[in-house]
Protein backbone atom coordinates (compact mmCIF):
# COMPACT_ATOMS: atom_id res chain seq x y z
CA UNK A 1 0.00 0.00 0.00
CA UNK A 2 1.30 3.45 -0.86
CA UNK A 3 2.33 5.33 2.28
CA UNK A 4 -0.12 8.19 2.97
CA UNK A 5 1.17 11.68 3.62
CA UNK A 6 1.09 13.20 7.11
CA UNK A 7 -0.74 16.50 7.56
CA UNK A 8 -0.82 19.37 10.03
CA UNK A 9 -3.80 19.51 12.38
CA UNK A 10 -5.18 21.83 15.01
CA UNK A 11 -4.02 25.46 14.74
CA UNK A 12 -5.01 28.70 16.39
CA UNK A 13 -5.29 30.72 13.19
CA UNK A 14 -7.63 33.20 11.56
CA UNK A 15 -10.67 32.31 9.40
CA UNK A 16 -8.96 32.86 6.04
CA UNK A 17 -5.98 30.66 6.86
CA UNK A 18 -8.27 28.10 8.54
CA UNK A 19 -10.29 27.83 5.31
CA UNK A 20 -7.04 27.36 3.42
CA UNK A 21 -6.00 24.58 5.81
CA UNK A 22 -9.40 22.90 5.50
CA UNK A 23 -9.08 22.90 1.71
CA UNK A 24 -5.55 21.51 1.95
CA UNK A 25 -6.75 18.76 4.27
CA UNK A 26 -9.54 17.82 1.89
CA UNK A 27 -6.98 17.53 -0.92
CA UNK A 28 -4.74 15.29 1.19
CA UNK A 29 -7.62 13.04 2.26
CA UNK A 30 -8.73 12.74 -1.38
CA UNK A 31 -5.19 11.79 -2.38
CA UNK A 32 -5.09 9.02 0.24
CA UNK A 33 -8.42 7.61 -0.93
CA UNK A 34 -7.31 7.72 -4.55
CA UNK A 35 -4.00 5.99 -3.66
CA UNK A 36 -5.83 3.25 -1.72
CA UNK A 37 -8.18 2.65 -4.65
CA UNK A 38 -5.32 2.48 -7.14
CA UNK A 39 -3.33 0.14 -4.89
CA UNK A 40 -6.38 -2.13 -4.70
CA UNK A 41 -6.60 -2.16 -8.51
CA UNK A 42 -10.15 -0.78 -8.54
CA UNK A 43 -11.77 1.73 -10.85
CA UNK A 44 -13.67 4.78 -9.58
CA UNK A 45 -16.83 3.31 -11.10
CA UNK A 46 -16.42 0.07 -9.14
CA UNK A 47 -15.89 1.91 -5.86
CA UNK A 48 -18.86 4.19 -6.54
CA UNK A 49 -21.08 1.17 -7.15
CA UNK A 50 -19.85 -0.66 -4.05
CA UNK A 51 -20.44 2.44 -1.88
CA UNK A 52 -23.87 3.09 -3.38
CA UNK A 53 -22.88 6.45 -4.88
CA UNK A 54 -23.33 8.02 -8.30
CA UNK A 55 -20.00 7.80 -10.20
CA UNK A 56 -19.79 11.58 -10.64
CA UNK A 57 -20.26 12.15 -6.89
CA UNK A 58 -17.53 9.63 -6.06
CA UNK A 59 -15.24 11.29 -8.60
CA UNK A 60 -15.87 14.69 -7.01
CA UNK A 61 -14.78 13.36 -3.60
CA UNK A 62 -11.61 11.86 -5.07
CA UNK A 63 -10.86 15.15 -6.82
CA UNK A 64 -10.52 16.95 -3.48
CA UNK A 65 -12.43 19.93 -4.84
CA UNK A 66 -15.55 19.49 -2.68
CA UNK A 67 -16.16 18.88 1.00
CA UNK A 68 -15.97 15.18 1.93
CA UNK A 69 -18.76 14.13 4.33
CA UNK A 70 -18.07 11.81 7.23
CA UNK A 71 -20.52 9.31 5.73
CA UNK A 72 -18.25 8.86 2.71
CA UNK A 73 -15.13 8.58 4.89
CA UNK A 74 -16.72 5.75 6.88
CA UNK A 75 -17.61 3.92 3.68
CA UNK A 76 -14.11 4.44 2.28
CA UNK A 77 -12.44 3.26 5.50
CA UNK A 78 -14.60 0.12 5.45
CA UNK A 79 -14.04 -0.45 1.72
CA UNK A 80 -10.25 -0.23 1.92
CA UNK A 81 -10.01 -1.82 5.40
CA UNK A 82 -8.15 1.05 7.07
CA UNK A 83 -8.78 3.05 10.22
CA UNK A 84 -10.79 6.24 9.81
CA UNK A 85 -8.01 8.17 11.56
CA UNK A 86 -5.55 6.93 8.90
CA UNK A 87 -7.66 8.60 6.21
CA UNK A 88 -7.89 11.81 8.25
CA UNK A 89 -4.27 12.11 9.35
CA UNK A 90 -2.18 9.86 7.12
CA UNK A 91 -0.81 8.10 10.21
CA UNK A 92 -1.59 4.49 11.11
CA UNK A 93 -2.71 3.97 14.75
CA UNK A 94 -0.47 1.66 16.77
CA UNK A 95 -1.83 1.34 20.34
CA UNK A 96 -3.85 -1.80 21.09
CA UNK A 97 -4.13 -2.06 24.92
CA UNK A 98 -5.23 1.45 25.86
CA UNK A 99 -4.99 5.03 24.63
CA UNK A 100 -5.24 8.12 26.85
CA UNK A 101 -6.35 11.49 25.51
CA UNK A 102 -5.80 14.32 28.01
CA UNK A 103 -8.32 17.14 28.48
CA UNK A 104 -8.17 19.54 25.57
CA UNK A 105 -5.63 17.37 23.72
CA UNK A 106 -7.90 15.58 21.27
CA UNK A 107 -6.61 15.41 17.72
CA UNK A 108 -8.27 18.35 16.01
CA UNK A 109 -9.30 17.80 12.43
CA UNK A 110 -10.53 20.89 10.55
CA UNK A 111 -12.16 18.78 7.86
CA UNK A 112 -15.62 20.26 7.46
CA UNK A 113 -16.79 23.85 7.58
CA UNK A 114 -19.99 22.97 9.49
CA UNK A 115 -18.36 21.11 12.41
CA UNK A 116 -15.07 21.13 14.31
CA UNK A 117 -13.91 17.59 15.09
CA UNK A 118 -11.53 16.30 17.74
CA UNK A 119 -10.75 12.60 17.55
CA UNK A 120 -10.50 11.25 21.10
CA UNK A 121 -8.75 7.94 20.39
CA UNK A 122 -6.76 8.43 17.18
CA UNK A 123 -3.87 6.14 18.16
CA UNK A 124 -5.89 3.04 19.11
CA UNK A 125 -5.88 0.37 16.42
CA UNK A 126 -8.87 -1.79 15.39
CA UNK A 127 -11.41 0.42 17.15
CA UNK A 128 -14.97 -0.86 17.35
CA UNK A 129 -16.21 2.69 17.79
CA UNK A 130 -15.02 6.19 16.88
CA UNK A 131 -15.28 8.79 19.68
CA UNK A 132 -15.27 12.48 18.69
CA UNK A 133 -15.67 15.78 20.50
CA UNK A 134 -17.61 17.95 18.05
CA UNK A 135 -18.33 21.68 18.15
CA UNK A 136 -21.15 23.10 16.04
CA UNK A 137 -20.89 26.83 15.37
CA UNK A 138 -24.10 28.89 15.28
CA UNK A 139 -25.61 29.93 11.95
CA UNK A 140 -28.68 32.00 11.03
CA UNK A 141 -31.96 30.25 11.79
CA UNK A 142 -32.84 30.36 8.09
CA UNK A 143 -29.84 28.20 7.16
CA UNK A 144 -30.77 24.57 6.41
CA UNK A 145 -29.25 21.81 8.53
CA UNK A 146 -26.59 19.94 6.50
CA UNK A 147 -27.38 16.22 6.49
CA UNK A 148 -25.16 13.16 6.24
CA UNK A 149 -25.46 9.43 6.85
CA UNK A 150 -23.11 6.54 7.45
CA UNK A 151 -23.42 2.83 8.31
CA UNK A 152 -23.89 1.85 11.94
CA UNK A 153 -25.21 3.65 14.99
CA UNK A 154 -24.36 6.90 16.77
CA UNK A 155 -24.60 8.20 20.33
CA UNK A 156 -24.44 11.96 20.97
CA UNK A 157 -24.19 13.51 24.44
CA UNK A 158 -24.60 17.30 24.57
CA UNK A 159 -21.96 18.77 26.88
CA UNK A 160 -22.53 22.48 26.28
CA UNK A 161 -25.18 24.72 24.71
CA UNK A 162 -28.45 23.88 22.98
CA UNK A 163 -28.73 21.98 19.73
CA UNK A 164 -31.38 20.97 17.23
CA UNK A 165 -30.92 17.47 15.84
CA UNK A 166 -32.68 16.41 12.65
CA UNK A 167 -32.96 12.63 12.21
CA UNK A 168 -34.97 11.26 9.31
CA UNK A 169 -37.34 14.24 9.37
CA UNK A 170 -37.72 14.20 13.17
CA UNK A 171 -36.72 17.45 14.89
CA UNK A 172 -35.24 17.02 18.38
CA UNK A 173 -33.98 19.82 20.62
CA UNK A 174 -31.25 18.83 23.07
CA UNK A 175 -30.19 20.84 26.11
CA UNK A 176 -26.97 20.43 28.09
CA UNK A 177 -26.88 16.93 29.59
CA UNK A 178 -29.35 15.45 27.07
CA UNK A 179 -28.34 12.64 24.74
CA UNK A 180 -29.64 10.78 21.71
CA UNK A 181 -28.88 7.35 20.22
CA UNK A 182 -29.90 6.64 16.63
CA UNK A 183 -29.43 4.67 13.44
CA UNK A 184 -26.76 6.69 11.65
CA UNK A 185 -27.75 5.27 8.25
CA UNK A 186 -30.73 7.63 8.52
CA UNK A 187 -29.88 11.13 7.19
CA UNK A 188 -29.13 13.39 10.16
CA UNK A 189 -27.61 16.73 11.06
CA UNK A 190 -27.16 19.22 13.89
CA UNK A 191 -27.59 22.97 14.38
CA UNK A 192 -26.49 25.08 17.36
CA UNK A 193 -29.26 27.22 18.85
CA UNK A 194 -29.54 30.67 20.50
CA UNK A 195 -26.52 32.05 18.69
CA UNK A 196 -24.03 30.07 20.77
CA UNK A 197 -21.82 27.08 19.87
CA UNK A 198 -22.93 23.61 20.90
CA UNK A 199 -20.39 20.99 21.94
CA UNK A 200 -21.15 17.27 22.13
CA UNK A 201 -19.50 13.90 22.52
CA UNK A 202 -20.24 11.67 19.52
CA UNK A 203 -19.58 7.94 19.62
CA UNK A 204 -19.96 6.28 16.22
CA UNK A 205 -20.33 2.49 16.17
Description:
By secondary structure, the protein is α+β, with helices and mostly antiparallel strands. The protein has 2 domains: 15-89, lambda repressor-like DNA-binding domains (434 Repressor (Amino-terminal Domain)); 128-204, Sandwich (Jelly Rolls). The protein has 5 helices and 9 strands; from the N terminus they run H-H-H-H-H-E-E-E-E-E-E-E-E-E. The chain has helices at 15-39, 44-50, 55-63, 70-80, 84-89; strands at 107-109, 115-119, 130-136, 153-160, 163-167, 170-174, 179-183, 188-192, 198-204. The strands form 2 sheets. The chain has a 6-stranded antiparallel beta sheet. The chain has a 3-stranded antiparallel beta sheet with strand order 6-5-8, with no helix packed on it. Helix 2 crosses helix 3 (55-63). The protein is globular, with a radius of gyration of 17 Å. The two termini are 26 Å apart. Residues 1-18 have low confidence and may be disordered.
Amino acid sequence: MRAPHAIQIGTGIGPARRTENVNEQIQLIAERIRALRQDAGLTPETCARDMGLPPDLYASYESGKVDIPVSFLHKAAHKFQVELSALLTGEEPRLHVYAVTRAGKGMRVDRRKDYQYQSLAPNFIHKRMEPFLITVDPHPDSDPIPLNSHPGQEYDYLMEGSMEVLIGGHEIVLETGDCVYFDSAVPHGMKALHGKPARFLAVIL
